Amino acid sequence: MLGYVGRRAASMLVVLFAASIIVFLFLHLAPGDPATILLAGRPTTEEALTAVRAKYALDQPLPVQYLTWIGNVLQGDLGESIKGRDEVLNVLRPRLVTTLALTAYAAVLMLLIGIPLGIVSAVRRGGAVDATASFGALIVASIPPYVSGVVLIAIFAVALGWFPALGLGSGVADTFYHLTLPAIALALSAIAMVSRVTRVSMIGALATEYVETARIRGFSSRRIVLKHALRSALIPVVTVSGVVVGYLLSGAILVEYTFGLNGIGSLLVSSVQGLDYAVVQAIALIITAEFLVISLVVDILYAVIDPRVRFAGVGRP
Amino acid sequence: MSAEQAVVADRPPTTRRIRMSALFGIIVIVFSIMVAVFASILAPYDPNAVDLSSSMSGPSAAHLLGTDGAGRDILSRLMFGARLSLLGPLMVVLAAAVIGVPLGIAAGYTGGWLDGVLSRSFDLVFAFPALLLAAVIVATFGPGFITIVVAVTVIYIPLMARVVRAGAIVERGKPYVDALQVQGFGANRIAGRHIAPNLAPLIIGQTALYFGYALLDLAGLSFLGFGVQPPTPDWGSMLWYANQAVYVSPTGVLWPALAIVISVVAFNIVGDWLVSRASASR
User: Fold this and answer.
1) Which chain B residue shows the shortest CA-CA distance from A216?
2) Which of A127, A158, A218, B205 is deepest in the core (most CB within 10 A)?
C-alpha cells in the first residue's frame, strides 16, 4: 500500500514539475519584454525594469530563471502585486479556505444527492424517478456553473429573496447559508454526472450472480441493494467523483466570480483582468497542485475500496 | 424487479425517439446559424443603439425581449451575439480537427516512440484544469476574442487527438490495412487516403460535441471578461452585463442563459447521435 502511494505521489510531483515549467515558459511566449509584462502596466521606469530583471534573473539562461522564479514562489513571493502588497499568506489563506469550503460543500451535495438518485433510478428502472432524472441530467449536464449561478441568483436571491446573492456573511452558520446557492450552482451538473454513473454501475451490479445468489437466499431487497450491490457499484463512482471534484475546483473559479466570493478563483480572475502575470502564474500553480492532490487522494481511496489496485504490478492477478 | 428482468428492461431508447431528438437538435442548430448569418436583416434594431430613456424595459411590442441597462434591444443583441458566439466554437473545432486529427492518426497508426511522446504531451495538457490554462494564456496575450479562441483550441487539440488515436489503433488492426501494406503503399498514403476517411464519421460526431463544449468554454471566458469586450454583442458578455443589473431586472439574465443552454443542448444531442451512429457502423 505504501509503495503504491509512493509511486502515485512521485508521478504527481513529476506532473507538477512539468506544469510549473509550462506556466513559467508562457512568460517568454508573450510578445514583448518579459520585464514589461511582469510590471503589469505600472510605469516602466529604467530603475523598475532593472529591479525586475535582477529579481527574476531575466538576463540569465532559462534554467537559472526558472529556478529563481520557483524559488521565489516557494518562499511565498508571488510578485509585486498592485492590489495585494500585504503578506501573501494573509491574502491567500482566507481565500483558500473559502475555495475549499465551497468545493467541499458542492462535493458533499454531489455525493448526497447524486448517489441515492442513481441507486433509486437503477432499482426502479423506467419509473418516474428514473425518467425524470435521466431527462433532467441531459439538460443539467449542458448548464455550466456560471449560467446556473446567474439564474439561481435571479430566482432564489432576487425574485424570491430566500438566499443572499453576494458575499460570505460572518460566522460559520451564516457562511454556510451564504455558500448554499453557490454550492448548488457548482454541484448541479456534477450531480447529473454522478447519478448517471451510479445508475449504470448499479444496474450492472444488480445483474451479477452474487446478487442473484443473495436473492435466492432470501435476503431483503434493502440489504441486497445497500450491502451487496452498492459496494462493488461504488468503485467506478469513486473514480468519476475524483475527476468531477477536479472539475468542481475549476468550476469554483466561475462560481466565486459570479457570487462575489473572495476565493482563490476570484483572485485569479481579477489578476487576469489586471494582467498581473506573476500572481496568475502563482495561482495557476496552486490550483494545479490542488487538482493533483485530489487525484492522488482518489487514487488512494480507490486502492482502499478495491484491493486489486494495490497489488497490481506486484505479481498478483 | 429481478436481475433478469432488469437486464431485459434496459433496452436502449427507440431509434425513433433518438431520430426525433436529433432532428430537433439539427433544427435548432440551423435556426441559430441562419439568425447569426442574417442578423443584420432580421434584427429589429442596431445592437449597439443606446437609448437611456427606455433602459431595462420589460418585453413589449417595440422590444420583444425588452431592453438592457443601456436601453439596447436584447433581441437584436442576441441575434448579433450569435455571430461571435457561434464563430468562436467553429474556429476552435476546425483548428482542433486540422491539427488534432493528423497528430492522433500519427500517434495511433505509427505507434512506438512517436505515440509515446505525443500521448505524454496530450496528458500534460489534461493535467491542467482547462480554465487555468486559458487564464494563463489570457494573462500573457491580453484579453480578446482571438486570445480565448486560441486558449480553448490548445485544450481541444489533445482531446480530438486522443479520440482519433484510439480510432486509428482500431483501424490499424483491420485486414484492409494489412492488405494495403502488403501492396507496398506507404504509411502516409494509408493514413491519409484510407484511415482518415474511415474515421470521418467519428471525427464529425466529435466535432459537433466539442462545438457545444467550446461554446460553453468561450462564453464562460467572455463572462469573466477575458474574451469578447463590451459593447460587442456576445452571449457570454451579455450574461455578465445582465447579471450586473440582476436586482433591477432579474429576467434579463434569462435570455442569454437560454441562448447558451439551448444551443449547447442541441449540439450535444446531435453530437451524441453522430458518435453513436459512427460507432454502430464500425
Assistant:
1) B2
2) B205
CA B64 to CA B58: how far, in whole Å? Answer: 8
Angle at CA B264, nearest 5°, toward B121 and B152? 30
Task: Kindly give, in sequence order, each residue whose CB lies less than 8 Å from that of residue A43, ignoring residues fewer than 6 positions away.
Answer: none
Contact B131 A215 (CB under 8 A): no
Whose cell is 500534460? That residue is B124
Q: Decide: B143 and B227 in contact? Cβ < 8 Å.
A: yes
Grid cell of B264 as nine digits: 449547447
Place of cell 495585494: A84
* Nearest-neighbour CA in chain A from B7: distance (Å): 7
SS3 assignment, position B73 = strand
What are the pLDDT digits (tens) for B58-86?
Answer: 788 777 888 887 778 889 899 999 999 99
C-alpha to C-alpha distances, A264 to A181, A295, B127, B173, nearest whole angstrom:
18, 19, 19, 48
Does residue A256 contact residue A102 with C-beta atoms inside 8 Å?
A: yes
- Does the pTM surpass 0.80? The reply is yes
Name every chain A residue with its beta carbon within 8 A of the beta carbon of B243.
150, 153, 258
Q: Which residues of B touch A196 (CB under 8 A)?
A: none
- Dihedral pair phi/psi, residue B174, rounded to 5°: -85, 150
Contact B65, B258 (CB under 8 A): no
CB B193 within 8 A of CB B79: no
Distance from CA of B262 to the nearest CA of A (A): 9
Return the residue of A nearest to B269 by Cα. A138
CA-nearest residue to B10 within chain A is A125
B201/B178 Cα distance (integer angstroms): 22
C-alpha cell at B3: 436481475
Nearest in space to A41 (alpha carbons), one of A275, A281, A280:
A275
Q: Is B77 within 8 Å of B46 (Cβ atoms)?
A: no
Q: Does B124 touch chain A (CB under 8 A)?
A: yes
Complex confidence, ipTM:
0.82
Q: How far is CA A96 from CA A17, A88, A146, A175, A183, in A?
A: 21, 12, 20, 15, 16
Chain segment A172-188, per-residue pLDDT in tens = 777 888 899 999 999 99
In one-letter notation, the amino acid at residue A90 is N
Inspect the interface and report whether the beta carbons of A26 and B140 lie closer than 8 Å.
yes
Contacting residues of A for B130, CB less than 8 Å apart: 250
Q: If you count them, how many residues does chain B have?
A: 282
DSSP-based three-state secondary structure for B67:
strand
pLDDT digits (tens, 9 = 90+) for B143-163: 899 999 999 999 999 999 999
Q: B5, B11, B122, B132: best mutation site toward chain A, by most A Cβ within 10 Å?
A: B132
**Which residues 58-97 of B are in CB contact (within 8 Å) with A?**
none
Cα dihedral: A194, A195, A200, A204 (round 10): 90
